[in-house]
Amino acid sequence: MVITCSALAAVTNSRLLAVIAAAVVVLALLNYVTQCIVHPRRIVKDRKLNGEFEYSFNSDNLELTVADGTSKANWSNFAKVWENVHYYFLFHNKRQYWIIPKESFRNAEQEQLFRQIVQSHHPIATGVIR
User: Fold this and answer.
1) Is 49 helix (H, G, I), strand (E, B) or coil?
2) Backbone angles phi, psi at 78, to 5 degrees
């Protein structure tokens, strides 16, 4: 879009198209700075997001405990579950999810029990997240 606006602005000598192209570039840079610099720094500084987590689960719900509180979610609160080699991702919606590291399970039996409980509520997807 920027290239098209810039080319059209140059060919037609249109200031409006040049301004639009410049605005798109500025907005793209602001978005990059926000997503790649500002938000990660906030997350690093937030104790709630960088402290120790403890998960516990049963057939009804999953509970997340941090130093200053507990969150409990019924399995129906999750829209989908996805896994890769190292993690389980339990999605509340497209942008919010809980991550459970596979290394956090005490043993293979505990992870297998977790998988059985999850699969009784949601299929566990792999591959590309959709």
Assistant:
1) helix
2) -95, 135
Tokens coding 68:
């200053």
Query: Tens digits of per-residue pLDDT, 75-89?
Result: 999 999 999 999 999
HSE (side-chain half, CA atoms, 13 Å) at 105: 17
Return d(Cα 13, Cα 3) in angstroms, integer: 15
Q: CB neighbours of 6 closer than 8 A, spacing ≥ 6?
A: 17, 18, 21
Gap between the Cα atoms of 102 and 108, Å rounded: 10
| pLDDT 10s digits, 51-70 | 677 889 999 999 988 878 88
Q: Provide the 3-class DSSP secondary structure of residue 87.
A: strand
Could you tell me where the DSSP H helices lie in the chain? 2-12, 15-33, 39-45, 47-50, 108-119
What is the torsion angle, in degrees rounded to the nearest 10, for the CA atoms of residue 42, residue 43, residue 47 and residue 49? 160
